[in-house]
Amino acid sequence: MEEIYFDYQKKFSPVKASAETIEFLISYSRALYTVKHENLKFDFLLN
Amino acid sequence: MSVQIEDSELVRDYISGDEKALEILINRHNQRITSFIYSKVLDRDITEDIFQDTFIKVIKTLKKGRYSEEGKFLPWVMRISHNLIIDHFRKNKRMPMFEGSDDFNIFSVIGDDKLNAEKQLIKDQVNSDLRILVEELPDDQKEVLLMRIYKDMSFKEISENTGVSINTALGRMRYALINLRKIIEKNNIVLTS
User: Does the structural domain B1-95 have CATH classification 1.10.1740.10?
Assistant: First the structure.
């Protein structure tokens, strides 16, 4: 019973992505440029 | 009293170049998305990876102007993370585990024919997703696809039942598959079984 409760708690306890991951995503977004040429789109990472 | 900006507005701002809008969106939905991923994979590192991959996909899609689900940002992101979770389990299934260093364990590479609970869940989810997508098809294509895939009818039988030639039935099936693929690509859906 304890084990079931522990698993349940583990599965449903709120968790958050780390500050580093969020920092990375924001930097990634700032560095990503999409260039359009006619019907084509290119991604560039500028850092 | 501060008024919370709607997701759709933040998405619009982000597409227009406001990077701060992305930060707000990520922080606003961080706990919900991360907890959802963690409840499936039960590993903090894998959760971080899937969360990161989810938002990389979100960023790319938004920057390319391919996002079309205005007002439904969170369900859309949850859908992407759900697909990435399935990808994660699929990748692990493809990589056989070898236990011990000397002995080859045959059971690690021979699959079990029966679906375990997790695979069954994924299969059921794929089937229900597919049924929703099929509903998007034009009626003539949907009819042929349902007869072929779900009723297992031959193209000759389909042709007799629908009153069109075999070639027309084949053509409708072809267009149904092309259109399904387009819907899947447009919505960033990954179907796996």
Answer: yes
Q: Tell which of A10, A20, A24, A25 to mutate to test the B interface (max B CBs under 10 Å).
A: A25
* Neighboring chain A residues of B52 at a CB cutoff of 8 Å: 17, 21, 24-25
What would the pLDDT profile of B58-69 be if each residue is shown by its tens digit? 999 998 888 886
pTM of the model: 0.54
**B166 CB neighbour count, 10 Å cutoff:** 14
Q: How far is CA B124 from CA B50, B72, B114, B135, B187, in A?
A: 22, 24, 14, 17, 20
Domain boundaries in chain B? Answer: 1-95, 118-192
Architecture of domain B118-192 in this structure: Orthogonal Bundle (1.10)
Q: What is the pLDDT of residues B108-131, one digit of tens each?
A: 555 555 556 666 677 777 777 777
Evaluate whether ipTM surpasses 0.85.
no
B114 near A CB under 8 A = no
User: ∠ CA B170-B173-B179 to the nearest 5 degrees?
Assistant: 140
